[in-house]
Amino acid sequence: MQNQQKIRVAVRIRPLLDHEKRQGHLNSRIDCNGQEVIIKEERNKKSYKFDHVLPEAASQEQVFKGCEIDQLVQSVIEGYHVTVFAYGQTGSGKTYTMEGLRDEEGIAIKQDGLIPKTIHSLFNKIKQNALQKDFSVYCSYLQIYNEKIYDLLGETTKTNFSVQASGLKMRWNVRDQFVVENLFVYQCKTAEEVIQLFKLGSRNRITASHKLNFQSSRSHSIFEIKIESIDLKNPDNFITSKLELVDLAGSERISITGTEGRQAKESIEINKSLMTLRQVIAILSDTNNKTIPPYRESKLTCLLKQSIGGNCFCLMIACIAPLDTFYDENVSTLQYATKAAYITNIPVKNDDPKLKIINDLKQQINSLKLELSKANEHIEFLSNIVQKKDSNQNMNNIQTRTNFDNLLQNQQRLLEEEESSDEDANKFEYAQFNDRLIDSINMVRELLLSNKEMREREEQINQKCESMYREIQFLQKENFELRERLGDPDQQRESPQKRPSTIKKNTMMMEEPGFLPEQVTQFQRNFQKDFRDTPNKDYKDSQMSMTNRNIRAHSQRTQGRQLPLISTYQQNFEEVQQDEMTNFGRRSLYQKQLK
Ligand SMILES: Nc1ncnc2c1ncn2[C@@H]1O[C@H](COP(=O)(O)OP(=O)(O)OP(=O)(O)O)[C@@H](O)[C@H]1O
Questions:
Q1: Which of 56, 238, 356, 366 is the most exposed place for a label (fewest CB within 10 A)?
Q2: CB under 8 Å to 35, separation ≥6 — which residues?
Q3: Sign of the CA dihedral 53, 55, 56, 60?
Q4: Does the CB atom of residue 94 touch ligand 1 within 6 A?
Q5: Bigger pLDDT: 5 or 506?
Q6: What would be the CATH architecture of the domain defined by 5-261+276-351?
Q7: Do 288 and 314 contact (CB within 8 A), yes or no?
Q8: Any binding-site annotation on 89?
């Protein structure tokens, strides 16, 4: 039975700010009681129930405890993906809730929000589990600004957008996930290192001032903490999980915020992506609606695909600025929060998929070995029976011969007297013994045969296992080389911003440039298929040897290929794609010639 989990929803109502009070704003329409948020409007009295409701007076600590974030951190430690995201209109307190109170430079300095508290909680739990597991922690931080993805810990700074003007690419991977390419990932040993990185990235995040918020986030941000854990007792037990902490940009009405020009364009992009998010939430919350959620329509929903309707534990924090003037926005936020609470996720433990297969195969091998040893025992047992019968018969023969002289006369007499009846009895006994012997031999034969089959199966599994180990080794080597390679530009670049010394890893996604043996076999099979009906054998042979030559040349070329520098990676990747296109073109040509 799969572990189904509804998205948990918390609503936080922020207090009226001093300047709002001075301007005469009031809250006469929104209140809360226990787990309920109450709309006090005369004609439209309504209450909404949520998992957690945090009233105006709730401190940051109370929000952290009230939302049971500690439990979510425990799930990450156990190997589940977790997402916490803040949602609400502009100025409703999302950044305050997630990061804390910001200073003028836009860095959270006081009243730590959920992100710093969660980081501390995570490292406390790592410490508690240190005797059972070895943990590694990696962080990355990105923002989606004007529908482009930027690395907040990479080259980009607020003033320097030319480096990543086109934004980072996103691609779909084999595990059914969207991943961002070339995103910097930093290994961190302590909570302080993670918080330092987080602050560094927050400083790079784009903010602007408008009528509703003097430090409004103009981008959606995703701070990701990836945890790898290895069981110390059983090192094959390798688990990776991630904790995503998301601060969305707030929806805004341009007529109220008074934004113009660049900021107005930002507002449009923010509203567009939030609209897609709302569509996804609406579709997923309605079990009768069979429409496919439009995840692909915005970068935000692509990256939140696993979190909303996927395999994560997810907490949504809906933020409310309870001013009467925001009545419509607040009702809309409450409605979407209610819908989100109907969405079912299926969290799964993230064992490494390759190791999972290897472990399964190992289990199969063990059970086959067990069966084999049982079968061997059977064979031995039956062989013993057959041998015993043989020796018994021999013994009988010897005895008969030894006593033959003594018994001869008596037997002769008895034989003469009862010749016919004795002969019948002996014949019957002999036939019975014969039958049993044949049965036993057949059984032994069957067992030998199944023994042989099992041996072959074991052999196959071993081979599969070996090839997977080889593949893992190859991937590890490639990963190591990438890390090494990424180390260089990092050291060479003189960054004005200090990063922790443990910066080690980069998730730059590399496509395998050479052919895998399976691909070669498949390619040759395709070739055979294409030329199956070609009458001209010489032509077929020459094409076949040309194909083989190309494959050999390609693999020599790609094996000797230097791994590309980050800057030339894209170019090399296109070159590999070009190679593959050429092969594809060649095959199409063969097919045309054939026709
Ligand atoms: N619970 C709270 N207590 C006191 N002040 C708060 C609270 N929540 C928010 N604020 C203040 O309200 C203002 C707006 O908050 P914040 O910037 O977090 O909103 P936001 O939802 O992130 O807005 P945007 O979407 O525009 O980025 C800030 O000055 C913040 O300090």
A1: 366
A2: 49, 50, 51, 52, 53
A3: negative
A4: yes
A5: 5
A6: 3-Layer(aba) Sandwich (3.40)
A7: no
A8: yes
Could you state, in order of their start, the residue ranges of all structural domains in the chain? 5-261+276-351, 355-483, 511-594
For β-strands 52-54 and 8-13, DSSP reports them as parallel
In three-state secondary structure terms, 226 is: strand
The pLDDT-based confidence of 527 (bands split at 50, 70, 90) is: low
Cα of 91 vs centre of ligand 1, distance in Å, is 5
- Kindly state if the Cβ of 16 falls inside 6 Å of ligand 1: no
Asked, colleague to colleague, whether 5-261+276-351 and 355-483 share their fold, the answer is: no
Which are the contacts of 18, defined by CB distance < 8 A and separation ≥ 6? none
pTM passes above 0.90: no
3-state DSSP assignment of residue 69: helix
Nearest to 183 by CA among 494, 486, 513: 486
CA atoms 207, 208, 212, 213: torsion sign: positive
Query: Among 97, 38, 32, 24, which Cα is nearest to 325's?
Result: 24
The rounded Å distance from CA 94 to ligand 1 centre is 6
Contact assessment for residue 315 and residue 67, using Cβ atoms and an 8 Å cutoff? yes
Atom 16 (ligand 1) nearest CA: 93
Task: State pLDDT tens for residues 411-454.
Answer: 666 666 665 565 666 777 777 777 778 877 777 888 888 888 88
Over its C-alpha atoms, the chain yields an Rg (Å, rounded) of 36
Tokens of 250: 């707030």
Of the residues 25, 95, 251, 273, which should be mutated to test ligand 1's pocket, given the most ligand atoms within 8 Å of the CB?
95
